[in-house]
Q: What sequence folds into this?
């Protein structure tokens, strides 16, 4: 049962065609949008019957928001590069306000830019062709059974393309920043990431508040669509800290070819409602994914964190861990599925989902699951737990001289540290620790209550 009616007024063909026309898109991209809108109209809000009961859309008011249809560069676009980064792109509401490449990235042929710039008449034809190939050549880059992924695919007004050529290694991360929060507005975006053979890169995606919350909700719905060629390695870290009136839907899908490696480190802290879905498709022999995801919710926040990992090829590896900390009246849904197909001999896969409740009214559900069609595997297992802080851990720290409140705080922050430690920039790590620490006073007051 979907615990709210789903009415998205702006999901209409007329709006789709207006967006495509404003961006002067080629016909193939318009057709891609129309196909996505068709799928959107046919799909239920939750296709997996295991998870249907745990989709709660009551906090979301789609009718309150109008999506941006005209987007582009701001009057002035900063070329400043964050310290230690190899590339930078900053989208604030409907405008690109920052764009920069390091000298090494530029000389290596790295691309970090918007679809609109790449497809503009007179642009680099070769780069535009790379974008078309990334979207069309290898099959779907978003789950075809997810209604919200197809909504984003059909209605996106901003597209970002990240391309790293073969054998290129970037020493610093590519930073992509989304600043959203204008009341009554929706930013719908897609990000495509393509790494060619033996390329190595990292991406830091930052989702931050642009405008102090006031009145109507704001909406960000975005994607990260990743394809790793043979032997490529990608580290993706993401920090979400939207304002208390912002709703977000994010889909991340990755297809891994032979001997490629992907590492996710994802942190969700802000927002009124966050629905995240990750799809990992291990299509090449020897490919591997390591995923750590955390959510720290307070107040009336709702976090819906779902992951799917599909093992297709032989000798693939998946290590997936989701952790949530919930206080006040926050709710967290941790949902995951590992699929091992008949062709996936030698699979090694683990899924863990663990939630910590810091208040009597906080709620969480963990639903790890397996579908195995190949008995010849190295490992296929899952684990989960939901409960309060382990009192024995508190007792141990108190026996070493720490006050009870400080002991509880250290346990919670240590529980979340595996993601923090994998953020690629020191400044970004420190910022995430500050965000997590900022939640703590609510935890103490909730416990006292």
A:
């Amino acid at each position: 049962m979907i615990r709210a009616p789903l009415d998205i007024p702006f999901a209409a063909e007329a709006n789709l065609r207006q967006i495509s026309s404003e961006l002067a898109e080629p016909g193939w991209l318009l057709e891609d949008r129309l196909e996505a809108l068709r799928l959107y109209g046919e799909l239920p809000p939750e296709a997996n019957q295991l998870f249907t009961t745990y989709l709660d859309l009551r906090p979301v008011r789609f009718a309150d928001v109008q999506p941006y249809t005209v987007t582009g560069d701001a009057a002035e676009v900063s070329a400043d590069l964050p310290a230690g980064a190899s590339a930078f792109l900053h989208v604030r509401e409907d405008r690109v306000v920052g764009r920069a490449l390091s000298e090494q990235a530029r000389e290596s042929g790295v691309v970090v830019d918007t679809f609109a710039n790449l497809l503009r008449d007179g642009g680099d034809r070769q780069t535009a062709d790379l974008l078309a190939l990334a979207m069309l050549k290898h099959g779907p880059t978003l789950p075809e059974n997810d209604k919200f992924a197809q909504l984003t695919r059909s209605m996106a007004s901003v597209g970002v393309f990240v391309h790293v050529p073969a054998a290129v290694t970037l020493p610093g991360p590519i930073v992509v920043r989304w600043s959203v929060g204008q009341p009554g507005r929706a930013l719908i975006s897609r990000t495509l990431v393509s790494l060619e053979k033996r390329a190595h890169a990292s991406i830091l995606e930052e989702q931050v508040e642009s405008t102090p919350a006031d009145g109507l909700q704001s909406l960000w719905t975005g994607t990260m669509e990743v394809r790793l060629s043979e032997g490529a390695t990608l580290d993706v870290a993401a920090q979400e800290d939207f304002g208390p009136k912002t709703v977000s839907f994010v889909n991340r899908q990755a297809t891994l070819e032979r001997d490629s490696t992907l590492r996710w480190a994802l942190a969700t802290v802000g927002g009124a409602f966050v629905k995240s879905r990750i799809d990992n498709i291990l299509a090449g022999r020897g490919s591997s994914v390591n995923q750590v995801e955390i959510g720290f919710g307070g107040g009336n926040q709702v976090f819906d964190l779902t992951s799917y990992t599909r093992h297709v090829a032989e000798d693939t590896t998946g290590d997936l861990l989701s952790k949530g900390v919930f206080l006040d009246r926050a709710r967290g849904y941790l949902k995951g599925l590992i699929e091992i197909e008949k062709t996936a001999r030698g699979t090694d896969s683990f899924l863990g989902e663990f939630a910590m409740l810091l208040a009597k009214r906080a709620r969480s559900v963990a639903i790890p699951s397996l579908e195995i069609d190949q008995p010849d595997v190295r490992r296929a297992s899952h684990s989960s737990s939901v409960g309060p802080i382990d009192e024995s851990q508190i007792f141990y720290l108190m026996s070493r001289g720490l006050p009870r409140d400080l002991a509880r705080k250290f346990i919670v922050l240590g529980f979340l540290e595996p993601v923090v430690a994998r953020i690629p920039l020191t400044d970004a790590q420190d910022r995430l620790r500050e965000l997590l620490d900022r939640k703590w006073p609510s935890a103490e007051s909730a416990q006292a209550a």
Q: What stands out?
A: The first helix runs from residue 13 to 22.
